[in-house]
């Protein structure tokens, strides 16, 4: 038997697997607990269990397969069925979403920092996420619900010397020229996280 060459790295990998398994077991326990509460009539009153479906969610610890029960209730006023996946709701997952809300929020915290997608990925090296996925998270972000630009929180941005800096990024756009494929580098606004302030509006009338 040979001695280990990278003891701490092996330990780290083992801890990741251990945490992943603990998270999986925790979700299984919660899945069963929700069903018991439903049977006792404490939650989801008026709903019926229609089916059981599996889903693999993405977390900071890696991909985790979970089981989900579909609870359905007929709404007489709307004349339609209301479908609820209770475990999805508790994980903050909307319909068809697979990225757990805490992982998504971690990526959202970088939206105004100007970091490259590659650098952001390094902060969650165990999550099975691509740069394209992070791009889509930023693109589909509800800016009204994001604290740092929310007008509801009345957050005012101070701009020294009336100079506003806006983060831009580059991208390659596939195009054709003379029937040949060509990549054209274009610049676009990746993040626009500030409100434009006009100097005149800040001045008091004489």
Give the N-terminus to C-terminus distance in angstroms. 86 Å
Helix-strand sequence: HEEEHHHHEEH
Number of helical segments with 4 or more residues:
6
Shape: flat
Instruction: Strand order, main sheet: write it out.
Output: 1-2-3
- Secondary structure tally: strands: 5
Helical residues, percent = 25-40%
Integer-rounded radius of gyration: 24 Å
Average pLDDT figure: 80
Structural class: alpha+beta
Any low-confidence stretches, pLDDT <50, length ≥5? 148-153, 183-202
Strand content: 25-35%
**Strand count, sense and closure of the main sheet?**
3 strands, antiparallel
Summarize the structure.
With 206 residues, the chain is of the alpha+beta class.
What features would you describe in this structure?
This protein has 206 residues and is of the alpha+beta class. Helix content is 31%, strand content 25%. It has helices spanning 7-39, 86-90, 101-108, 117-121, 131-139, 199-202; strands at 48-59, 62-75, 80-85, 168-177, 180-189. It is flat, with a radius of gyration of 24 Å.
In terms of topology, how is this protein built?
Layout (H helix, E strand, L loop, with lengths): L6 H33 L8 E12 L2 E14 L4 E6 H5 L10 H8 L8 H5 L9 H9 L28 E10 L2 E10 L9 H4 L4
Antiparallel strand pairs: 1-2, 2-3, 4-5
